[in-house]
Amino acid sequence: MGYSRRTFLKNSALAMAATSFLPGEASSFFKKEVTGLQLYSVRDDMKTDPSGTLKKLAEMGYKYVEHAGYVDHKFYGSPAKEFRAQLDGLGLKMISGHTRLGASDWNESTKDFSDSWKMTVEDAAIAGQQYVVSPSLEEAQRKTYDDLMKFMDVFNRCGELCKQHGMKFGYHNHDFEFSSVLNNKKVYDIIMQNTDAALVAHQLDMGNLYNGGAIAIAVVMQYPGRYELMHVKDEIKSTTTAAGRDKFESTILGEGIVNTKQVCDLGKKSGGTRVFIIEQESYQGKTPLDCAKADLAIMKKWGY
What we know:
This protein is of the alpha/beta class.
């Protein structure tokens, strides 16, 4: 059966009612906050020595990670079951992961997902994920307003698919969502207003959006109760002037312009946020692992 607008409106109303009566308790899997690391923060280390890198992260005190390395139906070179065993052996849980849901993953004529995408969702469940997060949108999915609206229906359907496996589908923003406009509406507003809160979680990347001209705390205030997950970042002006370089780059938490703690606190209080994923992609001369250690210490100092 197709995903109906009536079902969307019903589920959205129920979700909004829940967040009205239980501020900060949205539909997250967690009642208390958890803090983890997006493994893209240590991407080169994960490429050369995934097991050794995970061990170092566990020794730092990390309990949760989020992947960005699912290729050819393997996590950093290991099948889902084997990667889960590695994590279990280190006392780590892979709470979520980034795998982009592309146009080729949905067959419009059959109204069904590809076998490859279904396997992606199944592998995520085997690996212990609770969120399957698509980290961006292909340009083909957002060329026109109608293109984007059609794919928002696919997002909602993917929420149903993930729910069958005990997980939730999610979307993670970059910057184009705030700088691109279709039918006189920001792409981000179209996404937020046409995804079912009961089926699609949103992971606010509080750093990426600055390159799109947005301010993190204002976005959380605009959409309270919608952010089950956050990418915890801080941003400074880019340290390189290379052509095409973003205006801002990430840095150690608390050292930039994001007001990171305040955004986290607001997310916890009114945004339903329970999953805080540290991500740092630029290091200003430090090593990625040293940055990961420093960022975790700062989050703990802030009470996370």
